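Case study: Inositol polyphosphate-related phosphatase domain-containing protein.
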Amino acid sequence: MRVEENKRNKFWPKISLKNWISKKREKQGYEADIVDETDSEVEDYQDLWDLDFERRYSYSATEFTLPRSYSSGFQSRHSSATLLPKDSEVLRSKFSDTHQFRVFVGTWNVGGRAPNDKVDIDEWLGSLKEPADIYVIGFQEVVPLSAGNVLGSENNLPAVKWQHLIRRTLNSTGSTGGSFRRSCSTPSSMWQDSALDFTDSLQHEFGGINLTSFVSRGTPILSPTLNSRSLGHRPLHNRSRYAMVASKQMVGLYVSVWVRSELRQNVRNVKVSCIGCGLMGYLGNKGSISISMSLHQTTFCFVCSHLASGQKDGDEIRRNTDVAEILKRTQFRRSQDINGAGLPETILEHDRVIWLGDLNYRLALSPRVTRSLLAKEDWDALLEKDQLQIQRRAGRVFNGWNEGKIYFAPTYKYRANSDSYTLEKVKLGGKKRTPAWCDRILWYGDGLKQLAYVRAETKLSDHRPVYAVFAADVEVLSRKKLKDFLIFKPAKVEVEELLPFYDDRKFMRY
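Here is what the predicted structure looks like once written out:
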């Protein structure tokens, strides 16, 4: 009995800290822009897709009933679900097409330095010839990782400054020309103008049936916008090119996701999960912020992390452990529908996953050899000793993940406002660090093709910012397929193709 009591007393501080952090996280929300829903293609889609799956509708002498089983995959209007059931390939192929969207992902450890008016991030965010559809921007050390910032109240003033700078850069007047508008045309934006005409044509072909009542009830596939559970929402100016979907800070970590304003209403199920891996294994001086969301019918997860530091032998094992803990402990809020169909709750359950941040993996080389290879710009020889690549090849971390080929110089450690590594020039009392590719971007799963993997040359901190550009496959509900389905022809072939069939070995499948 006394032994058990001694064990409880021994672990009481850690347990208390864990409970305190958990309660604190429960009250945390995230910031997001809200656009005017009265002028959105989502309302048009809502009219088309709000079918009452439990009722019968007649057209001439033909009666049509969608099988009751399909209603299990859809949720009520006030649910957070948006997706077609993942286990029904027939249904997904019937109603959706695949389109590509450009995703920009950037990461930067700013070393606790807040931006000033002279900081120019246009080379980092604004250098693309063709602007992206989605921007994911992650920072590490937006505040110094002092005891006061780690244990005390959160200082969000630097994050607000970075947010303002990002908004100004993405929405700069220099990128608002007509060619930019044309390059950003997507199926969703092109369909908006024709949705109402489509509804009128359906009413005509259905012989004057009142389709307002036909499509106004039942179960939507597209859910409402972010609700009151999300904190800090801001109205979006009508002229803003990009809308902020989510913005979250945990101590020094800060990440925000931006989408083109016309896509904002196609983004649903935004959720945030913060994991602390720092002091005592739970504090937020190290860890991750993960943002989950769905765009049209495809789910995305963006993980921004800052892993354990240090360049001693064996420190890479601590970083491996941080990755394993983040993958294990990251949980997104369970949806409030009946079965949570199509709503991922862990990182790897998403369709598209991208991991960014200061991963802190170093080079297993002596300073002398490193200096020689740096002078030759022999990146391949240096990367052979990169801890992350060594650990991945051994299957110890990021097993099954992908990283693009690196063609740029190590991003750490520079003297502030300088092109010199601390390996080359060290101030009296300063720390000497072997240069390394600490700042990385990886991805998991199919449907992502990396188009670029580049570093920028902004000199604010001892790290250089890095970005990658991806072409992401996204399933988009097809207006044509929907029309073909709703305007069922005299022969019931199309309906019967969707009827469930039975397998002798399993339960009913679709």
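For the exam, be able to explain this: The first strand starts at residue 33 and ends at 34.
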